[in-house]
Amino acid sequence: MPVRVAVNGFGTIGKRVADAIAKQPDMQLVGVVKTRPSFEAEVAVARGYPLYVGGDGNVEEFRSAGIKVAGSVDDLFRGTDVVVDATPDKVGRQQAAKYASANLKAIFQGGEKPDVAELSFSALANYDAAKGKSRVRVVSCNTTGIVRAAAVLRAHYGVERWEATLVRRAADPTEVHKGPVNAILPTFQFPSHHAPDAQTIFPDLAISTTALVVPTTLMHVHVNHVRLRRPPATTEEVVAAFRETPRFQVFRSADHVEGTPQVLEYAKDHGTSRGDMMKNVLWEDGVRLAGNELFFFQAIHQESIVVPENVDAVRAMFNLAPNANASIAVTDLALGLRD
Ligand code: NAD
């Protein structure tokens, strides 16, 4: 029997997670939840996803907009094993009691504080710890990017110290009321919240982060400086370690990918769903090892990087795969992330 998955909140993250769940061989997307009629609600129906009304929404509003709904969120939860909460920041926590009283396992997103769940999760880092758990939090886009890279560097070389500056996108492309439009905004928080968030997964990771927001919607970029414990002899070995790990895309010089616009153009040219880039993006020219000091840039597509992690979280919570590699292999094949 496939695990029955509901997605509560069908926005930027929810609609992508719903598509990803619908593609998995061992999961069934039993429904998605919206609060208001919209073109996205119509897309859900067109894709054959049963659409339910949640939050303060009402079924009549959908019916009068000509959008077919299957019922209310309570109807959906009666036939669900796990809910992926993809509601806005802090709304997930308000929903937690509802999930518990419906006897559902739940996956929360990085906009919630860590204590909403039993553990924070990223598949390459701590898949086994999520096995059989009832409440798991997939860390945010930036933290997912850091933790994936940390999983590689810790396993191969050990990490003595890591400093990262996060150049953050101002908004998602549809967030028309957010900014800045013409400014660079330093975040006056030391460290920024990303370092402690990464430490919810790797408590002993000696990392410090700072952040600034810039006027773009096209991905975040991290500027990393890492002191390795057991450095390899060459930069090429580090590049190879990233390249051979799932969920990393390392561009060559010959690809002529100068920055984030070309990364997303590459994704569109490869026909990925919504032009998404679910892998950490590195450039071989943007990695440099000098003794034990490693410098590298990585770009993170905020709208999609956490999507495969949500799928793996379901698999871990229901013991559907023996280990991280097995789960990642199934997820990534279904999502077209494997070469
Ligand atoms: P979003 O605003 O794009 O989507 C949230 C959706 O939930 C909207 O459609 C909204 O109408 C709906 N909603 C609101 N209240 C609801 C309720 N009570 N019941 C059901 N649906 C409800 O938000 P998002 O960007 O998808 O973010 C969702 C979560 O994912 C947040 O925790 C966020 O921090 C996290 N996240 C976002 C990004 C990103 O860059 N967008 C990246 C990683 C993680």
Brief overview:
The protein has 339 residues and is α/β, with parallel strands linked by helices. The chain has helices at residues 12-22, 39-46, 59-64, 73-77, 91-101, 123-126, 141-156, 194-199, 235-243, 260-269, 307-317, 324-334, and strands at residues 3-8, 27-34, 51-53, 71-72, 82-85, 105-108, 119-121, 135-138, 159-169, 185-186, 207-214, 220-228, 248-251, 280-283, 287-290, 293-300.
| Mean pLDDT metric | 98
Which sheet architecture does the biggest sheet show?
A: 8 strands, parallel
Instruction: State the distance separating the first and last CA atoms.
Output: 29 Å
Q: How many β-strand runs?
A: 16
Radius of gyration: 20 Å
Q: Structural class from helices and strands?
A: alpha/beta
Supply the number of helical segments.
Answer: 12
Helix % is 25-40%
Quick one: overall form?
globular
Secondary-structure element sequence?
Answer: EHEHEHEHEHEEHEHEEHEEHEHEEEHH
Q: What ligand species are in this complex?
A: nicotinamide-adenine-dinucleotide
What does this structure look like?
It is a single chain. The chain is α/β, with parallel strands linked by helices and 339 residues long. 32% of the residues lie in helices and 25% in strands. The chain is built from 12 helices and 16 strands. The protein has an 8-stranded parallel β-sheet with strand order 4-3-2-1-5-6-8-7, sandwiched between helices. Strands 10-11-9-12-16-15 form a 6-stranded mixed β-sheet. A two-stranded parallel ribbon has the order 13-14. The chain binds nicotinamide-adenine-dinucleotide. Nicotinamide-adenine-dinucleotide (NAD) binds next to helix 1.
